[in-house]
Write a structure and sequence with these properties.
Elements (H helix, E strand, L loop, with lengths): L1 E2 L8 E4 L2 E11 L7 E8 L5 E7 L3 E4 L3 E10 L3 E5 L6 E5 L15 E7 L2 E6 L3 E9 L12 E6 L4 E5 L7 E5 L4 E6 L2
Antiparallel strand pairs: 1-6, 2-3, 2-6, 3-4, 4-5, 7-8, 7-10, 8-9, 10-11, 12-13, 12-15, 13-14, 15-16
């Protein structure tokens, strides 16, 4: 059990027998009355968002999870397939609730899976990743009306805005939390 006032972003909770991850937390101390915490949580099985307000002294059930590295293999219609590189055991993670992660999954890359009772409930994407540019328009000299950026398509289908000098075949570093270009990466 954990007191609501001690909960921070990234904590895993069990609410109505469903695992949730706290994605936002706001502490409020009004002039009158007792302090409370506004929580925004994501259901790790369905992807639904739950907003909840708790007084700071109330307790919630925290769950213990394990982070374990797995290599991404492929995706089919319903699942993402990963392999434990130590035991070669394969594991499936349902696409439901993880649809937005598909644009960051690259075959052969290693990702951390969050396991609860040996059941994968979350795929942790690195904060920054390198991608190859597969489609890019040629920049036209003097075209700076748009702020000097253009959209490009990366190897996973993700579209990001990059500076005009980026061309097809370049490799770029992308911030996965904001989908923003960081820098060009030299091979």
């Amino acid at each position: 059990m954990i007191r609501a006032g001690e909960i921070s972003k990234g904590v895993f909770l069990l609410i109505k027998n469903e695992p949730y991850e706290v994605v936002e937390r706001e502490f409020v101390n009004p002039g009158k009355g007792s302090a409370f915490v506004r929580l925004k949580m994501k259901n790790l099985r369905s992807g639904q968002v739950l907003k909840q307000v708790n007084k700071t002294h109330e307790t919630l059930e925290e769950i213990q999870v394990e982070d374990k590295p797995y290599q991404y293999l492929y995706a089919d219609d319903n699942s993402y397939h990963f392999m434990d590189t130590a035991t070669y055991e394969q594991i499936e993670v349902g696409k439901v609730g993880h649809e937005e992660k598909q644009q960051y999954l690259k075959e052969g890359n290693e990702y951390q899976l969050v396991l609860w009772d040996a059941d994968p409930i979350e795929i942790e994407i690195p904060y920054k990743m390198v991608f190859a540019v597969t489609e890019a328009q040629n920049a036209i000299k003097g075209d700076t009306v748009t702020g000097g950026t253009k959209p490009v398509t990366l190897e996973t289908g993700l579209v990001v805005r990059v500076p005009l000098f980026i061309k097809q075949g370049d490799r770029v570093l992308v911030n996965t939390e904001t989908n923003e270009y960081v820098e060009r990466v030299n091979s």
